[in-house]
């Protein structure tokens, strides 16, 4: 419980109705999209950067933890207030401030829903490429804090590649602007991209300027059915090495296919081990040629059927299966641990085989799906957290997963971040010297350790 005088001070900053303290509110803000939870002391909903600054001044003076929160869709327990304190929810700061057509950049407050920003850019005839599957229920600030990726990142890169400038509030409440609209800028350290991916541990992002690009004229999509999962893995590498130039290659394994089919009854075949979903884009000729090349390569690598979408609606239907996997898995087991390990894409067939071995070794269903084209697999371990013995096996399986990806030259996380769940494995991935340097950066930015304490490292 916070001292009532401090609560009153925070209320005087943001207004009484924007400091939430009821038991219901505390529970509502105690979760993200993982299976963990912890209640804050209170929730503060600022309306602008100045209010964020005033809240942080109070928190820094009183050494109160501040957990910045977007939509709470994170998959690393990054926005859960394990040490109590203030949840600083930025959802009221959701204004689109500018679309600058001349420079092809948009500026928005950090709490804007990511897909609303992308839609606004699309209405102008342009493309904001970062497309996390969660873009309609995650914020721009959350995407920046986690350096979110998505299916299209294979061709167009991740959120950080599009962030040009930031307004941030430091732990002591000072407001700082970083970067700008000049495309080239090597004046000093690249602090913009230090903040990108910092998971709310270095500063609170309050505003961002992102660049957008010319929209491709058209898109083509195909789905290929593989009786053998390893053949799908090989096909991914062959498509990437061809001239198909795909904008996405997504994979679904047999458990994912079955789970979606039992949920949506789309007529997906249940006697195959994998579906690859491939998209190309560009002008009509390039996109069509690309999808034909990819389809032929899939056939040569063991696909028994390749369907090419003839209409935008058929494309949407194909994506519906991939986009519905996460939600459908709750039908199999009550809990899931969704990891996002990456490997170099040449190692995908081997990584898939290793995940299958880990699943058998620990006797746990592990569903494989994700952005396979950029080597970012989402092995989802399905379990029941009420069973301590099963939860113990999950922990052991996670360790094996991380060791496998690091051994293959990959990483713990392609897009979800470290948060709390991957913290024990940070040194395995980075080595002790890099971890020490990261801790020194944290110390410099947040000497009182009030910003999301205990996330990324202790
Ligand atoms: C079904 C599902 C599918 C998903 N698919 C993808 C995907 O395809 N790609 C992907 O990358 N992720 C995906 N995610 C994960 C998640 O949506 C992303 O990590 C997203 O970027 C989190 O945004 P958020 O606004 O919900 O942030 P939150 O969950 O609220 O916070 C996440 C982290 O960011 C910090 N943070 C939030 N806002 C700010 C801010 N303004 N300033 C500083 N720090 C801040 C928090 O402190 C926390 O550490 C998925 C999640 C779900 C549930």
Summarize the structure.
This protein is of the alpha+beta class and 458 residues long.
Bound molecules: flavin-adenine dinucleotide
Q: State the strand order across the main sheet.
A: 15-12-14-13-17-18-16
Uncertain segments of ≥5 residues (pLDDT<50)? none
Work out the strand percent: 15-25%
Shape-level CATH architecture of the largest domain: 2-Layer Sandwich
Q: Give the biggest beta sheet.
A: 7 strands, antiparallel
If you had to describe this structure to a student in words, what would you say it looks like?
With 458 residues, the protein is an alpha+beta fold. The protein folds into 4 domains: 86 residues, Uridine Diphospho-n-acetylenolpyruvylglucosamine Reductase, domain 2; 119 residues, Uridine Diphospho-n-acetylenolpyruvylglucosamine Reductase, domain 3 (2-Layer Sandwich); 110 residues, Alpha-Beta Plaits (2-Layer Sandwich), CATH 3.30.70; 98 residues, Alpha-Beta Plaits (2-Layer Sandwich), CATH 3.30.70.2740. It is built from 16 helices and 18 strands. The strands form 4 sheets. It has a 7-stranded antiparallel β-sheet with strand order 15-12-14-13-17-18-16, sandwiched between helices. Strand 5 and strand 6 form a beta hairpin. Helix 1 packs antiparallel against helix 3 and helix 8 runs antiparallel to helix 10. The longest helix is centred in the last third of the chain and has 20 residues. The mean pLDDT is 96. It binds flavin-adenine dinucleotide. The site of flavin-adenine dinucleotide has 37 residues, from strand 3, helix 5 and strand 10.
């Amino acid at each position: 419980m916070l001292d009532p005088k401090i609560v009153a001070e925070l209320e005087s900053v943001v207004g009484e109705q924007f400091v939430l303290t009821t038991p219901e509110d505390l529970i509502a803000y105690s979760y993200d999209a993982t299976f963990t939870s912890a209640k804050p002391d209170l929730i503060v909903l600022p309306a602008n950067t100045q209010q964020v600054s005033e809240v942080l001044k109070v928190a820094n003076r009183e050494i109160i933890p501040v957990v910045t929160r977007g939509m709470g869709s994170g998959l690393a327990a990054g926005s859960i207030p394990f040490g109590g304190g203030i949840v600083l929810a930025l959802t009221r700061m959701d204004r689109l401030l500018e679309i600058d057509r001349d420079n092809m950049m948009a500026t928005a407050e950090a709490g804007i829903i990511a897909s609303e920003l992308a839609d606004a850019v699309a209405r102008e005839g342009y493309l904001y490429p970062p497309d996390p599957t969660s873009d309609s229920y995650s914020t721009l600030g959350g995407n920046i804090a986690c350096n979110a990726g998505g299916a299209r990142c294979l061709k167009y890169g991740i959120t950080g590649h599009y962030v040009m400038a930031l307004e941030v509030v430091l732990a002591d409440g000072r407001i700082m602007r970083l970067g700008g609209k000049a495309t080239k800028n090597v004046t000093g350290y690249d602090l913009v991209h230090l903040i990108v991916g910092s998971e709310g541990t270095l500063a609170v992002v309050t505003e961002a300027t992102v660049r957008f690009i010319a929209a491709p004229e058209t898109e083509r999509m195909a789905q290929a059915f593989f009786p053998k999962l390893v053949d799908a893995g090989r096909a991914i590498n062959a498509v990437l090495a061809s001239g198909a130039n795909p904008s996405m290659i997504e994979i679904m394994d047999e458990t994912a296919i079955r789970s979606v089919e039992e949920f949506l009854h789309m007529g997906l075949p249940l006697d195959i081990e994998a579906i690859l979903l491939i998209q190309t884009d560009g002008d009509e000729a390039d996109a069509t040629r690309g999808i034909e090349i990819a389809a032929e390569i899939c056939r040569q690598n063991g696909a028994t059927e390749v369907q090419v979408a003839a209409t935008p609606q058929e494309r949407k239907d194909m994506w519906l299966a991939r986009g519905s996997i996460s939600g459908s898995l709750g039908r199999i087991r009550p809990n899931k641990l969704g990891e996002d390990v990456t490997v170099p894409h040449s190692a995908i067939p081997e990584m898939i085989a290793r995940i299958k071995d880990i699943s058998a070794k620990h006797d746990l269903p592990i569903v494989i799906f994700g952005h396979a084209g950029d080597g970012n697999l989402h092995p989802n371990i399905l379990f029941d957290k009420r069973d301590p013995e099963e939860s113990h096996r999950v922990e052991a399986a996670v360790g094996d997963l991380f060791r496998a990806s690091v051994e293959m030259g990959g990483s713990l996380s392609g897009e979800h971040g470290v948060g709390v769940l991957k913290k024990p494995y940070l040194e395995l991935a980075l080595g002790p010297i890099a971890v020490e340097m990261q801790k020194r950066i944290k110390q410099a930015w947040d000497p009182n350790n009030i910003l999301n304490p205990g996330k990324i490292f202790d």
